[in-house]
Amino acid sequence: MLVFTVASGILLQTMAAGHGLRDSAREEWAATSAAQNVLERLRNEAFLSIVPLYDSDPHNDPSGPGTGPGAAFDVPGLDPAPDDPDGRVGEVVLPVVNVGDEVARDWQVREDIGDARLGVPRDLSGDAIVDARDHGDDYAILPVLVSVRWNGQHGPRELRFFTSITEIAR
Amino acid sequence: MRRAIAASESRRGAALVLSLILVMIVGSLGAAFLQTTAAGARTQTHSVDQMQAFYAAEAGLAEAFLAVRMGRSGVIASAEEPAFFGESLLWVEALETGDHRVWIRATAVNGLARATLGQIIEPAEPPLGFFAEEDIVVESVLLIDGFDSSERTYEEEVDAVLRDAGESPWQRPSPDHGEPAIVVDPSSPHAEAQRAALEYEGIFGRDHLRHFLENQVEIPERPTCVISVTPFDPRLFLDESAFHRFTETIVPMFDAHTSGSLFPVPDKVEEPRSRRRSRSKGRGLKRLHERVTSARAAADDRLWFNTGKGGLLGSNGDIIFRNARGEPAAVHGAVTPGVSSEVRNVESADVSGPTVPRSLPVELRSVDVPDVVLERPIHHDGPIPRILHPGATGYEALQVGPGSELVVRGPAEIVVGSVSVESGGKLTLDTRDGDVELFVTGHLALANESIIETTAERSTEVTIQAASGDRLTAAPRLDLEASGAFHGTISAPQSIVRVGPDFEVFGSISARRLEIGAGARLHFDDETFNGLLEVPKQESWRIIDLPNVGSLVAAPAPNGQPALAAAHDLSGVELSVQYIDRSGRSHVYTGPESAFDWSDVAAVAGTERKVERPESEPGDDWWNGWGIDDVVRVLQRIETRVERRIDQHRERGSFRGGRDDD
Amino acid sequence: MKGSHRSGFTLLEVILAMTLTAIVMIKVTGARRSATETTEADLDRTTLDMQARQVLRQIGFAIMGSHPDSLVPDVRRPHASSDMKFQVSLGLESGEVVWSEPEKIALEEVRRQVYWTDNPEALEERRVVWTSLVAPFLEGEIPNGIDDNGNGLIDEKGLSFTIDGGAVDMSLTLERVRDDGTVITSTVGTVVTCRNLVDGWRSAR
Fold first, then answer.
1. Is A105 in CB contact (< 8 Å) with chain C?
2. pLDDT tens digits for range B315-356
């Protein structure tokens, strides 16, 4: 009976683990799918509108303040990680930094400072030099990171999708 | 006792067997379940890796696309020494085909997945401004400046310059040679300044002089006096010695004006002048002559007002200024002679930019004339405008008589044997609905007193390309003596192009020989070019390889590889750059880009690159690694797997739903 | 010799052993049946999920290589189409972009299949079934002229496409009825942007 109990326990544990794997796969699919949707929609925008639409500043949205999708997004079925600062699982990271302060914010596309995961410092305007100007009007390439971080079955999970977008002529 | 032990051992054996059976049953069930779910999880992991690799490969394409736009090869890292971006390793291959297309192939690996994407692009040519293969001789007054129509029109650019100088846009004073307003008071301490001002009022006009003193003179610390020659340039009215004398009177005149002793009676404020553009819409042909005169007046005006920057005059030979008429040629920008050539007599001209020879010879791209059947010539001679409708057509000749108008309506691609617009005739290139491309294989003659009109805002909307129809015929000549504003580009690599004084160009011209008439005004459209070419045209994008099955061995994680942006292959890239370093000193570098340190560059004044790409035709395996047929095959395999599972269910009698047809 | 009469098992021992064995066997069989049923349900769900995701991704990759002007029908929200015709760029030949023959991905409603064809409506049409088990309508939707599942589309089928500029929204629901009568569904959705934007797209036909 003891052996039977142990064996049954192992079976149940295995099945639970299997369930966990399947749930993890579902979560990963939801995260991947959401990130893909953001990347594809972002690519569908006019090149120089991508930053104002997808940065954290709602005031520079081309169609009026707050009309752009912004830098954060939700993913149905995924809960934010407990330590998530904005409580939203999805985030679009661009080479944009706030060079102002918390009150008077000044978001700029910068080559010299920013998120190292995007390869910054690097030339963004195509003149081969890295300077300290705002390149919001003349960036020629835009590295993008779409990150989805959620509270998974076995603790916080994160998937990151990196790409770069450039302007193309038809 | 031994028997008891034996019996006990025997019972323990039975329990062991029973336990083993139980464990085997439970274990096999668990293993099967775990195997299936793990397979699903592995598929999902591969699926995530695949998307990460796919988007990383797109980053590779974007990086190579930018590299080509910068004049580099587009090759980035290699399979042996890949670069990293995000969490992927990647590399980009590029080759150039005979038709100047660049084929790019980016491969990224991430975990168990791999993605290879392809792109074919047509890079733009480096802007040459006003360029001739042969020597350029400038014998008279001339204005060359620049603007960028992608940012604003020429007029808006001039407005901005005026605004920066403190003048209201287009409230520009015209030369006023009427009654002098300056009165010389011998008892005034500013009497000498008043005399000088009276003299220069007669030369420049009162308003120009006043504008100059108010907006273009700055005295930071006496006796230092800083004057600006933009937007009003006194040197256009004064020879060198007279200008020198003028500069000596500036400070006294400035003081006199500041004290209110120069212009005691305030001038009447002029009404803003409407924007004059040489093309004037909606006017009748009967007023052609009036319009030519008006265009000339406007042109004279524009010689004094300019953007003050961005001009580009270049050659593969020498550029010679011959100041025969005593009026200087004004080039607000660079004058670039050919390799080992020079700009001669530059002191007789007013050149604001560098005059250093180019480091790399320019190879003008030949013109490929489309192969179309030419229709009979059109000779239009009548009051009603003749319209050539959009589309691709060809004519043996187009001839426009006096008082007649021919309208080419875009989008149009027209091959024409010869074009002749006689005096009083008009040629309109209407790009409101699409670009106009004109290929000329014979003489293009826009006669003096004829009118050219383009509706284009950007020079890319109109292109005139000239080349002989066959190798035996001489290249056609282009005589552009018409009046009007031409917004477009002219490419005639084998031709002689003559630009008359009233043919105002907003765009660029490249020719074998360039003859520039007195008083010509050439505004280079692309003045912000700073080593970055026009956005290349993407001809094709394709998934070359995107395996649905993960590889058995995971790709290594990025570890010490160079970043994607720092892994451009610069071998074979010749660089010529004028720059200011971080300590503020100007430099010129010419040599391989791989040997140049960009980190010391604070600002760039001009960049040229020449690149040697491997030239070959891509093989099938290079471009067609993966296609829709492969998708079909993969999906058929999946379909087969699902069918097999359904069949297994059927055999067991457990299948009730799903496909009810087969 | 004292122990010789103790060889073998007493009747009680045999009955006890047999009873225990029977109980164990019944338990094991029950556990096995239960585990098998659970496993099969999970396997079915996992397989359906995998298939839906795989097929949708392949549809996305196929449409990604197309020109937005080649997409037919040009259907916009709140309407959706259960088929999409498109042409993909194959490369360059003699300086001209080569486009594929029109391809179509569509739902065959009677057979509940998603199929791909490279010559729709032609005699030589080549049709390949990409998946079966497609639900008649997207999960949560019924044919009543309103948007039941709150995705902004009205009466969309089990495979649905909508066009948004150069992007294509697509959704797929696969559905299976298990032998115990339970219905398992898997619904997936994605959006892709057409990458081939060259001007002057001309249909291969």
1. no
2. 999 999 886 556 678 888 889 899 889 999 888 888 887 787
Interface contact A22, partner B, CB < 8 A? yes
Instruction: Give residues 32 to 61 of A whose Cβ lies within 8 Å of B.
Output: 32, 35-36, 39
Whether residues B659 and C112 touch (CB distance < 8 A) is answered with yes
Q: What percent of chain B has pLDDT over 90?
A: 32
Q: Which two tokens stand for residue C195?
A: 């990458």
Nearest to B530 by CA among B456, B580, B494: B580
ipTM exceeds 0.90: yes
Per the CB < 8 A criterion, the answer to whether B181 and B265 are in contact is yes
Q: In sequence order, what are the residues at sequence separation of 6 or more whose Cβ sits closer than 8 angstroms to the Cβ of residue B609?
A: B70, B71, B72, B126, B531, B573, B574, B575, B576, B593
Q: For residue range B391-425, list pLDDT tens digits in order.
A: 889 999 999 999 899 999 989 999 999 999 999 99
Tens of pLDDT along B593-630? 999 999 999 888 778 788 877 777 787 778 876 444 55
User: Cα-atom radius of gyration of chain C, to the nearest Å?
Assistant: 28
Q: What is the DSSP string of B142-204?
A: EEEEEE-TTT--HHHHHHHHHHHTTPPTT-PPPP--SS------TTSTTHHHHHHHHHHHHHH
* % of chain C residues with pLDDT over 90: 54
Q: Does the CB of C129 have a partner CB in chain A at under 8 Å? A: no
Helix (H, G, I), strand (E, B) or coil at A23: helix
Secondary structure letter of residue B346 according to DSSP: G
pLDDT one-digit tens code per residue, B259-307 = 888 875 444 333 333 333 333 332 333 333 344 344 444 444 545 578 8
Q: Supply B149's token pair.
A: 């129509």
φ, ψ (nearest 5 deg) of residue B461 = -80, -25
Quickly count: other Cβ atoms within 10 Å of residue B13's Cβ. Answer: 10
Per CB-CB distance under 8 Å, the chain C contacts of B40 are 46, 49-50
CA dist B555 → A103, B87, B328 (Å): 45, 10, 66
Average per-residue pLDDT for chain B: 79
Q: Which two three-digit tokens encode residue C202? A: 């001309």
- Nearest by Cα to B429 from B468, B395, B460, B474: B460
**Burial degree of B365 (CB within 10 A; 0-12, 13-18, 19+):** exposed
- Asked whether the beta carbons of B339 and B590 are under 8 A apart, the reply is no
